[in-house]
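Narrative progress, year one. The postdoctoral researcher (J.K.) led the effort to move from monomer predictions toward full complexes, under supervision of the PI. The following entry was the first complex the group processed end to end, covering 594 residues in total.
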Amino acid sequence: MFWKRFKKNKLAVIGGILVFGLFAVAIFAPLLAPYDPDIINMEQVLQSPGAAHILGTDDLGRDVLSRMIYGTRISLSIGFIAIAIATIIGVILGSISGYYGRLIDSLIMRLVDIMLSVPTFFLLLTVLAIVGPSIWIVMFVIGLTGWMSIARLVRAEFLTLKEREFVQAARSIGASDARIIFRHILPNALTPVYVSFILGVAGAILMESGLSFLGFGVQPPTPSWGNILTAGREYMEVAWWLILFPGIAIFITCLSYYILGEGIRQALDPKLKI
Amino acid sequence: MGELLKVQNITKYFPAKTGFFESSGAPIHALNDISFAIAQGETLGLVGESGCGKSTLAKVIARLILPTSGKIFFEGDDITSVNGARLKKIRRNIQFVFQDPHASLNPHMTIGSTVSEPFVIHGLSGAKKALLEAENILDLVGISKEAVKRYPHEFSTGQRQRIAIARALALTPKLIIADEPIASLDVSIQAQILNLLKELKEKFNLTYLFISHDLRIIEYISDRVIVMYLGKIMEIASSRDLYKHPIHPYTEALLSAIPVINPQSKKKRIILKGEIPATTKLPSGCVFHTRCIYVKQRCIDEIPKLTKHDNRFFACHFPL
C-alpha cells in the first residue's frame, strides 16, 4: 500500500535513490576516492578540474573529489546522529507530555517554547565557542537544540491516541503506563516522526555545513563539505571549483532528503490522492 | 445469589473548560447519584438514549475514569480509589468489551500479542506459553489458531469483536462490562455475538453488565434492566416485569418506540415532545418532567427518590 503510493511519486523515488547513493558513497568512500584525501601535494596546488583531478585540487594540492567523498561520511553521520539524538529526546518528552498532561505537559511545553525562542544557530555558536568545536559536540548540540518540533508532533499524536479505545482496553487489562506508552501508543504515533526525521537530517547537514563554514564545526584536516567550502572561500576568484562542487553536493543532498521526506509524507497521508 | 458489584451514589461531573489557572462554565452532569447492585451470575442490562451516561457509568465501574463522588464495591471491597497492585488485581476481575472493535484493537499488534498480553501483564505465563493460551481462548470464541500471526485489519468486524471478547475473557474475570458490544455489527452478526456471549456466560459463570440502546437486545439477554435518562436511574426491574408493565413514564415511552413487526397491530406510540435537556443545566425536580406526558406540579418542584416497591425500583412521584 505504502510502496504503491510512494512509487507513483517519481520525484520522491529519485530523492530516495539519491539518498541511497549518498549512503553508498559514504560506505565505500575508500574504494571510490581516487586519492587519499589528506595527502598534501605542493606541486599540484589549485589545479583546475581535469583528467588527473576530476574536480581539481585545493590550496594544499589535495584532491577535491576525494575530500568530498570522505566528507560525505562526516556530513551524513553528523546529520543522522544529531537527528537521532533530537528524535529520541523529542519522542520521550513528547510522549510524557501528551500522555500525562496537566502540570508535566505544561512544564515540558513551556520548555519547548523557551528553546524555540532562542535562535538555534546562535545557541550552537555560543556552546561551541565555550566548549570548543569537535564532531561529537556538533552532533550533540544540534541534537539537543533540534528536538522541540518532534516533541510537539509526538505530543499531538498522543493527545488523540490516548483517548482511543484500544488504549483504554490496554488499561483495563492492567497494563502499566510504560507499557501503554511504548507498546500501544508510540507505534501508532511514529508515522509523522519518520517524515520529520528525514527532513531533519537535511536540516542538520545544512547546519553542520554552516557551522563548519564559520569555523565552529568539523575541524581541518578532517574533510566535511562545509570546511572544504571555507577553505575554498579565500581562493574563490582563482579556483571556482573549490566552492562550487561542495555547494552543489550540499544542495543536492538536502534537496533529495526533502523530496524523499515529502514523498513519504504524501504516501502515508491517506487523505491525499496521488 | 450474592452481590458481586455495588455502586453507591455515584456522581460524575466533567468540568466544562479547564484553563491553566481556572475552570469556568457549567460542568457536564454525566452521572447523578447512581446506586445499584449486580448479583453474581446475572446479566444486568443498561438501557437509555445516547448521551444519558451509560458509557460513562461503565467506565467508572471499570475504573477507567474516576467518579466525582460515590463509592464502588466489588465483592464487598471498596475499589473506588484503589491503586497500584490492588487495582491490577481488580482489573483481572472486571473486564471491558468496547463498542467498536475497529477502535478497540491495536492496529500495530498481532492478534496473538493482543490476546496474550493479559497473561504477560499479570505474570501468569511467559510469552511463549501465553501465546498458546491465546490460541485456546481464540478457539473458544470461534477464531482459528492461524489468527495469532495476523493483524486486526485482516478481520471482519464480527471477527474482531470475537477477538476483543477473547481478550476480555483471557483473565477469566468475574464481571464483564459490555458497552454496546454489538451496536457496530451487522444484524446477522449481532445474533451470533449475542449467542456467543450467552454461551460463554454459562461456561465460565460470568456476570455481565450489558449496555445497549436497543430495547429488544436488552430484553433478549438481560435478567434485570436499568433504565437511565440524563445521568439518572429511572427504573430498575426484572426484564420480564419491565417489558410487561413499565412503571416509569419514560420506560413506557421507550417501550412504545420498539417497532412491531405486525402492521395491523394498533400499538399506542408515545411521542416525547422536545429535546433531551442539556446536561450542563439539568431540569429542576424530576429530570424527565420537561418531556413527560403525565407531568404535574410536584414533578417540577421535587426530585423523586429511587424507591423500592415489590422488588423493583423507580424514581417517579406518580408511578404508572
